[in-house]
Amino acid sequence: MWNQFNLVRLATAFLTASSMAHPGHEEEERKSLATAGSFADSALSVGRCSGNAEKVARRMEAAIQRHAHTQRLKKRSVDTQGNSLDKRSLESVLGTNHHSRLRGITLDSDPRDFFTTTTCILSPDGGIGPYYVPGEQVRRDITEDEEGVPLYIHVQFIDVHTCDPVPGVYVDVWQANSTGVYSGVQNPVNGNGRDRSNIHNTALRGIQRTDRNGVVMFDSIFPGMYYGRAAHIHVLAHSEATRLPSNTVVSKYASHIGQLFFDQDLVHGIRDIYPYSTNVTDLTLNRDDDFIKMITESSESDPVFKYVLLGDDLADGVFAWITVGIQTTSYYDIDHDFVMTENGGVALNDD
């Protein structure tokens, strides 16, 4: 069993060695992009964080936890690939294979075999999009009755100023279903725009609190695609949130708003699986998505999940992870048109 001493020792050794060697969807989201937080302020490098052995060790510990969870999900072996975090560009991000292939890894393996500080990124604060809904439940499994390829995500948050994990922060996630429709809202370009009951739907939305390693975990399905957007998941870290007896949280501001993406080859493979195959919307590639272009152009960020497959068939599921560097002192207004209450969804702009 790895303890903190072993992790610090490994981290120190690693550092020493390193020193040596849909039209409406698209338009509304573009508007939110234009009014998002300052990308220039967020375009910082977290490479300097690699100089602190204990903090690197904490990230390694989180990696061990992540790997143990993968082993519980599916007993299989995979090989490893590393990615460099030098100056990013859209082409370098799109050209990177994020499929991690770890072979023969166990809990007794050296964490450096499958996790290094090069997985740490800075994710600029970005557009919240038109479909954020506050008031969702604190829960890990957000699938409900939605069909799709199982997806298990681990997102680790690190403070870009201190290089420490950010524990105790509530994080919202939300995404489209397999056919590109968001729950919790009513909009002419979101599925059946006449379906008022959709505002009471809570599928594929949820909140978790980061653990001591700054990690949140969600069980979901792979997100579907819709016009003008590549497959993605929204994340929002709350500032000074309070958990309510109703099992939700309330906060006035966000310390981070972002969007996370997937390798194009993985998306193509998912697209051929039912019910994703029933989606007749033209696929928007990562290279054509305004948000991923903006993120990669304004920072050193790689906003694409690393992942492993959980079986011989893609339909068996995907385990994905990413580390996000944030500025915990940032405060962003949280815009929304709908809210989830104890009595169901409510539209705020009804006449």
Q: Could you write a compact summary of the structure shown?
A:
This protein is of the alpha+beta class and 351 residues long. It has helices at 4-20, 23-34, 39-42, 53-73, 90-94, 264-271, 290-297, and strands spanning 120-122, 150-159, 170-174, 205-209, 215-221, 232-239, 242-243, 249-250, 253-261, 306-309, 318-326, 332-333, 338-341, 344-347. The relative contact order is 0.21.
Report the biggest beta sheet as strand number plus sense, adding barrel if it closes: 5 strands, mixed
Chain oligomer state: single chain
State the share of residues found in helices, binned by percent.
10-25%
How many DSSP-defined strands?
Answer: 14
- What CATH architecture would you give? Sandwich
Spans of at least 5 consecutive residues with low confidence:
1-22, 33-46, 75-87, 104-122
* Whole-angstrom Rg: 19 Å
Number of helices: 7
CATH overall fold name: Protocatechuate 3,4-Dioxygenase, subunit A
Dominant shape: globular
What is the number of independent domains?
1
Protein name: Dioxygenase
Region (Disordered): 67-89
GO molecular function, one term: oxidoreductase activity, acting on single donors with incorporation of molecular oxygen, incorporation of two atoms of oxygen
Domain Intradiol ring-cleavage dioxygenases: 130-264
